[in-house]
Amino acid sequence: MRNRVALLITVVSLAAAQGLCETPTSWVDFSSSLITLQGNEAAMARAAALLQTEIEERSGVRLAISSEPSGEAPLITLEVGKGGTPEGYSIRVERSPRLVLRVIGNDLRGVVFGAGRLVRLLYLDRGVVLADPEMDVTAAPVTPLRGHQVAYRSLVNTFDAWDFDAWHEYIRDQIILGCNAIELRSGNDIYDELDSPHMLSTKTEMNRRLSELIGEYGLEFWLYVELPEDVSDPATEEEVLRKHRAIFRNTPHLAGVFVPGGDPGDTPPEVLMPFLEKMAGVLHEEHPKALLQVSNQGFTPEQNDFFFAYMEEHDVSWLGGVVFAPWAKCDFAEERRRTPESIPVRRYPDITHTLRCQYPVSEWNIAFGILQGREPICPRFHDFAHIYKLFEGLADGGFLTYSEGVNDDANKAVFSLLGWDDTLSAEAMAREYASAFIGDRFAETGQKALLMLEDSWKGDPAANQAIPEARALWTSLLEEPDLQDNWRVQLYCFRALFDDWVRQKVIAERGHEVEALAALAAARETDWQTAVERARAALARADGPVDPELRKAIEDLALRLFNRIGFQPATAAPFLAHNSERGAVLDKMDEPVTNRSWIESELDALASLPSDGARLARIDAIVHWEDAGEGGSYDNLGCAGRQQHLVHQMPWESDPGRVHSPREGVDGRTQGKRLSWIQVAETLFGTPLLMRYDGLDKDAQYVLRVTYAGRYRPTMTLTADGMREIHGALAMPQPIAPLNFLVPKEATADGRLQLRWNLVEKRGCQVGEVWLMRMDTIPAHLKEAGVQREPASR
Predict the structure, then answer these.
(1) DSSP 778
(2) Interacting residues of 697 by C-beta distance below 8 A, sequence separation 6+
(3) Bond before 274 cis per omega within 30 degrees
(4) Of the candidates 675, 740, 677, which has an alpha carbon nearest to the alpha carbon of residue 706?
(5) Smallest Cα–Cα separation from 667: which of 749, 762, 767?
(6) Cross-strand bridge partners of residue 730
(7) Distances (CA, A) of 730 to 307, 674, 677, 758
């Protein structure tokens, strides 16, 4: 398939010094053309208006729309052809008898998508509307359902502040990229009144107006309908059906309804499935052709058995599809295999979160996890291009992505573009996105700057030069007069600035920690009070802003974004984000990114110890925490690069959701914890967590020291070599503290050791730190801790 990148490469020279695209001098001028349409359908009129509006926004040129063109001005015609692949189109330039740019849709939707694609194919700049004279593009989607969820509820960090015109503009943006469905999520009751301080319309009104608008474009409007009530009670069931009947009646155009099996909701499938059959009947009273789909989110293995068996054993002709969604306790292949072949499976990928989610950022440095949280601005062109292609063959029902706002705007583009051409590279899509929303003149620079943001999250931020380079590039773009009010440029510049804030904090605070530990290490040469005083002073140097000018630039840009699109990066006024997890990164700016909180809590505890000797021993433990002694080893299991004995059953490329292999689990609660207790290794849904050691001393007695940490607080068993118990079912201790165990000598007699944690209870295995130490070389500060087999009290 020809795409814009291929076209531009052949005719556009690049001004390398500025990184800007020069105006293609060989292209044909359409700045005085007329838009004409053959047909009076609503979708045709919407397509013409979309083309007119989007060209004007990018060039300042407003082309007239006329059904009866006169004169000799060039024409842009919109028409329906003689069939072909649904939603497909062709776009070509014809020179005789007059200059015409024809957009021919295979159907009405094809006209809409052809108009949207033309916006991307034209070269648009101030006063400039140019078309390649050799333009001849034919396209059709490879995925039938290509949609995105949008949320109008208090939990989002932008959308709740939008009026209808802002919504319409954003929907046009999605159409330009080839999206054919919008799913509205409004919380568990669409008739709630204004549940956000930013809302300008009730949920009821917004639902109705968006449904009408999507219908006028001829596209699909879906509703996400939560089911938190206990519908096993007949009276509650009737009330819930009554409420949904009113919602469906208030929705003039409705293509489908998605009911999650969990997250939120916990209706067991033996109650849920018969209820949904009744809901389908209510839905079809108002919308006979609408689909009803369900996910198995949160179902236990036993509930999954019932769920899949139910579809085999009952008439489920009312069921329009099964949805593979976050927190389904199986992988995509199993979901497709166990679902009857006649029922489509579509995906509901989480493109909006970075941690504690379906597709976390792999090997993400803990500093980003602490300061950026789980819902930051997150363009991930390479990650989501790979994820899309990996599971494409299993998703015969297409996709509706899970989104919470504009933080994932670029990721929506990845899915939409691949829904039309699944061969596109991440680089090509970044360029398409930059060209469409930053501008043709800035396409190359925008592409580079977008991909730099993804590179900025790789590895240690202190050593990542992509971070300052991205900051410089985005700052230069925001200084361009034509881009200063471009909210996407503002958004990504904000991310670039914040990444640099993280980088500088990491560099500075690590230096303070090194200084503090050095002061403590001298405690026996000076005295413990002096050592503690010096250590506290070193850590306190992090209290001032690491870069006051950068902080001000971030806060100023946050306010510009709030005024421009209602972006809410803080819980304080005027932003009033719902909570700090919802993209409120300004709330987190001053949190420590080292072990400072833990060190200070340990120092606070010294005064209560009975003697100076005990205090010095405690200080030694702080300074030498990771020391495993001669012949021993220490693993920080949640930290990439320091988990050398952790077993990855599958690579990220094969298992990006980490269903069958460990990933980094990040706890949002940081007070008093070491970094190694905040970011841990975790496995999900019964997958064991494994470690493997080679080259051990066959004659030595080994001691295992383990820190159990993590927000799941699981109960686990631990065995050596799959057969020798180290401890039985053991709950995570509170407060967090390392435990010591003897390793059966038989387990290391061959010079090797495999450790296996199996889940007994809760969501998944979680382990923070592991020391493997020789009994005869245990560090002095640990000898007082003793070595114990499984504690009888646990």
Answers:
(1) -
(2) 631, 748, 751, 774
(3) no
(4) 740
(5) 767
(6) 716
(7) 31, 22, 18, 11
Give CA angle at 710 (704, 713), nearest 5°.
Answer: 90
pLDDT recorded at residue 229: 82
- Helices 596-605 and 612-623 sit at what angle, rounded to 10 degrees? 170
For strands 181-185 and 220-224, give the pairing.
Answer: parallel
pLDDT tens digits, 670-712: 899 999 999 999 999 999 999 999 999 999 999 999 999 999 9
Nearest to 120 by CA among 433, 502, 414: 433
First to last CA, the chain: 63
How much of the chain is in helix, strand and coil states, percent to nearest 5? 40, 15, 45
Kindly give the pairing relationship between strand 75-80 and strand 34-37.
parallel
What CA–CA distance (Å, rounded) separates 710 from 151? 30
Instruction: Assign 125 to helix, strand or coil.
Output: strand
Asked if residues 135 and 91 have their Cβ atoms less than 8 Å apart, the reply is yes
Q: Say if strands 321-324 and 345-347 run parallel, antiparallel, or are unpaired.
A: parallel
Instruction: Give the SS3 label for residue 664.
Output: strand
**Phi and psi (nearest 5°) for 772?**
-115, 115
User: H-type helices in 252-331, by residue range?
Assistant: 269-286, 301-313
Distance (Å, whole) CA 456 – CA 501: 12
**Cα distances (Å, whole numbers) of residue 694 to 190, 298, 644, 677, 755:** 58, 38, 11, 26, 12
For the record, the structure tokens of 693 come out as: 């050691």
pLDDT beyond 60 at 395: yes
Residue 746, C-beta contacts closer than 8 angstroms, at least 6 positions apart: 724
Measured between alpha carbons, how far is 785 from 371 in angstroms, rounded to an integer? 34
Alpha helices in 131-202 (DSSP H): 164-176
Pairing of strands 20-21, 256-259: unpaired
Q: What is the pLDDT of residues 271-291, one digit of tens each?
A: 999 999 999 999 999 999 999
Q: What residues are paired with 766 via a beta bridge? A: 682
Q: What is the dihedral of CA 212, 216, 217, 218, to 10 degrees?
A: 100
Distance separating alpha carbons of residues 78 and 49, to the nearest angstrom: 11
Mean pLDDT across the chain, nearest whole number? 93
Q: How far apart are alpha carbons 358 and 343 in whole angstroms?
A: 23
Contacts of 352 (CB under 8 A, 6+ apart): 375, 378, 402, 403, 404, 405, 407, 408, 411
Q: How many whole angstroms from its chain centre is CA 611?
A: 51
Q: Which residues does 266 contact at the CB level (< 8 Å), separation at least 6?
A: 298
